[in-house]
């Protein structure tokens, strides 16, 4: 067994402990949101896991939740005072080393390394829950939304990853910088058109290019996840179909991916 296989096996052995810690983080988030009147819902693989497995997808190693941008701003302002000492709200505004636009609630007494992480980079790397702010989307054909938002997300990702001084880095800067500016302006322009009956992640986070009918989300319901009830969209079937298509089919073993390459549930 080579070093990579040993590392993967070690990570898999720690998976359930990681999931339990993430569930504890989610419970703290739920406590704060309930107390402050903030609405959120299970999103992505966490919602899929709740429907298909009544908890985590067995090989999933993160939790995703979503909330409107308005509720997100309220949560971001309140959470640092409400969270226990070992939990930290992390994004580009609270942790200078962070490059990605995602907000996470991190457990500081753990270590969680993703493929895009490095041990040397100076930012928190604990076990986490992802929070995705949702915004209204213009009434455009789904293909248009997919093309524009995927382009914005891809360009943003390239522009904010770690660069080295080289011809390629300069070429990428001008190409993707121009693409990002053009598509962002186009997105703002089309945003003035008609009613906005759909919503999704802010475009820089919408790498899938999907959007959801707002009527499929609210009023929120409750769903069982790992023996506890958490908020979910009111039309889970519509939501998951937009996101995954045939969401009840379990993928083959070779298609089941971990986000983490290394998990240490407890730091000494």
Automatic annotation (TrEMBL):
Coiled coil regions in record: none
Pfam family, one: LicD
Lineage top rank: taxon: Bacteria
InterPro entries, per database record: LicD/FKTN/FKRP_NTP_transf (IPR007074), LPS_cholinephosphotransferase (IPR052942)
Chain ranges of the LicD/FKTN/FKRP nucleotidyltransferase domain: 33-141, 212-245
A GO BP annotation: glycoprotein metabolic process
The protein, known as: LICD family protein
Organism classification: Bacteria, Pseudomonadati, Bacteroidota, Bacteroidia, Bacteroidales
